[in-house]
Amino acid sequence: MQVRKTTLIAGVLAVTSMIGAQSAFSASHMKKYTVEEHAINASLTGKAGDAANGRKVSINRKKGNCLACHVISDIKEQPFHGNIGPSLDGVASRYKEGELRLRMVDSKQFNEDTIMPAFYKVEGLHRLRKQFKGKPVLSAQEVEDVVAYLLTLK
Amino acid sequence: MENEKSKLGWKLSSIALGSVLMIGAMAVEVIAKDWGKHQVDNRRSGYTYMTDETRAVQDDDFENPGMLWVENGESLWSTAGANGKSCASCHADPDKDMKGVSVSYPRYDKKLGKIITLEQMVNRELVEKMGDKAEKFDSKKMLSLMTFIGTKSRDMPVNVKIDGDANPFFEKGKAFYYERRGQLDMSCANCHEDNPGNMIRANTLSEGQINGFPTYRLKWQKPGSVHRRFKGCNKQVRAKPYKAGSDEYSNLELYVKWRGRGLPGETPAVRN
């Protein structure tokens, strides 16, 4: 049997600053999670997500901005849904909660060629703009909120 | 390439069978639109990803707002610099002397030992031959001269040299193109190779061809340099941009220009 458990710290960074007191951003604020069979089964925050807020985060261009690439027919009040990725209609019927969570956190963990950004990751990124250093696209709770919203799209 | 998702036009064709009774069947056939000079093999100018309205503005020199810069460039051409010389002192017939220039840049420059963009070449002339100061890539004077020079390559095929001394720089530009960057962790290729024609919210992604630069961008309300556009793209994926005139962008410009080999010079193109 190969139930592979990997514990990943979502933000392991080379923290040591060699010279001077340039305080490196620590990733200690990132929640730890466990990937099991292409899923993160436990809530990142230990709390349930708020689907209503998740819907807002999905619309917000500076947050989830899901509509940039995906059609979500439920959000019909917003014009212009992108078509880079698959439609999210019925996504809850295709994936389990833990699978949706891993896709939100870091979809490259199962498809390294995907264009989809990792929404909860701060390490391994190249040439980040200063203001985004050490910051994931979404907070852990916002990820939970979006997952909760996606689960309503049956 | 697999990316033949070219805009499809609907063609109605009727097929008549029989002679006495005209049994006509209307068949709806999907055909690839013929983009004429704006497409070479599977490569399509950004022109083909614009709306009809935007294309119409580009096509009409009296409507094309970029032509104001061209006119300004034309008058600058014969304006004397600090030492009394103008561009026209050496290049008296720009129609002929500047023909094919902008579609052949950027180039490897022996003096610099690296890639030189056309803006940098213009600056070299301004400083060394005319005694003027160097201009920023997106200054009014530079954009005027660049658009003016660009019109002398209209409809000429993009043809940059990527072999010999230029090759290592071309390879660096290519590596940049495929390298993911920024908080959104995307490469140029993610959008412009894998998804041209697809919508990113209200915007249609193009192949990111640069055969029309400096391009009059409606969003900017003025023409802009290739490097300005690169910066904008990098910022959108939340990556730290490089400076206009940086080696990174000059190498990338060479590679991206090559991706549009054969496409016609369209300066000043009009884009969203």
3D structure, described in words:
The N terminus of chain A is likely disordered. Chain A is 22% helix and 6% strand. Chain A has a single domain, classed as Orthogonal Bundle (Cytochrome Bc1 Complex, Chain D, domain 2), CATH 1.10.760.10. A two-stranded antiparallel ribbon of chain A has the order 1-2. Chain A has four helices and two strands. Chain B is α+β, with helices and mostly antiparallel strands. Chain B has two domains: 142 residues, Cytochrome Bc1 Complex, Chain D, domain 2 (Orthogonal Bundle); 85 residues, Cytochrome Bc1 Complex, Chain D, domain 2. Chain B contains ten helices and eleven strands. In chain B, the strands form five sheets. In chain B, strands 10-9-11 form a three-stranded mixed beta sheet. Chain B has a two-stranded antiparallel sheet with strand order 1-2. A two-stranded antiparallel sheet of chain B has the order 3-4. In chain B, a hairpin with a 5-residue loop joins strand 1 and strand 2. Chain B is globular, with a radius of gyration of 21 Å. Chain B starts with 7 loop residues before the first strand and ends with a strand. The chains are: A alpha+beta (154), B alpha+beta (272). Chains A and B meet through loops of A and strand 7 of B.
